[in-house]
Amino acid sequence: MSYAIAIDGPAGAGKSTIAKRVAKELGFIYVDTGAMYRAMAIYFMGKSIAPSDEAAIENAVDGVDIRIEYEDGVQQVILNGENVTSKLRDEAVGRMASATSKYACVRTKLLELQRGLAKTSDVIMDGRDIGTTVLPDAQTKIYLTASADARAKRRYDELVLKGEKADFEEIKADIEKRDYQDMNREISPLKQADDAALLDTSDMNIDEVVEAVKKLVRVI
Questions:
Q1: Closest CA to 75 of 12, 132, 16
Q2: What pLDDT digit, counting tens, does each position of 45-64 carry?
């Protein structure tokens, strides 16, 4: 029987970083939903469908199959039997993914594919509504969070390290604004699932968070 770990939480909490590390250490598949949206975009582009043609996109989505595999520890995205990993970061693909991800038919199909992966493989997914909507039956659910100050500091340090200008208060205000939007959106708002473990990482480093998540998995 496959095992699923759902990690939800606000922006800047480090969900993807932690999920990728945990997946690698446990031998799970990290389901990169962004890569899946881009793979769908490649499919639509191959069909010469305009991003504004919602009807054509809705008619085409049933022909999409996306799998995530690993080769020498590197994630590979397979679209209808073809490895499209090298095409995922093309700018045109990104634009197409951004334009088509808003459609309900695309999101519904992606949800179906994500659940299909969880039925056949040990997976870890992160997002805003994984434990509440995408994988409500996940064996382990974690709400990963940190204070707005801690998240802003991490982002500030990241930008400074890159040599970019950064304003701590501006970053914090943006995080708080995004938190409000995510928690109050109409469809699948960000919230802690009733059966999710709360993990506040404000005073933890990455290694400590990874170990904490792994302990929660072992408890189940």
A1: 16
A2: 999 999 999 999 999 999 99
Residue 21 zone, left/alpha/beta (φ > 0; ψ -120 to 50; rest):
alpha
Please tell me whether residue 166 adopts helix, strand or coil conformation.
coil
Tell me the CB-side half-sphere exposure of residue 219, using CA atoms within 13 A.
12
Q: Output the domain CATH number for residue 175.
A: 3.40.50.300
Tell me the β-bridge partners of 7: 126, 142
Q: What phi, psi does 189 have (nearest 5°)?
A: -65, 155
Distance between CA atoms of residues 196 and 216, nearest Å: 10
Domain of residue 132, residue span: 1-28+122-220
Domain count, the chain: 2
Q: Each residue of 128-164: pLDDT tens digit?
A: 889 998 999 999 999 999 999 999 999 999 999 999 9
Sort 127 into a burial class: Cβ within 10 Å, 0-12 / 13-18 / 19+. buried
Position 186, amino acid? E
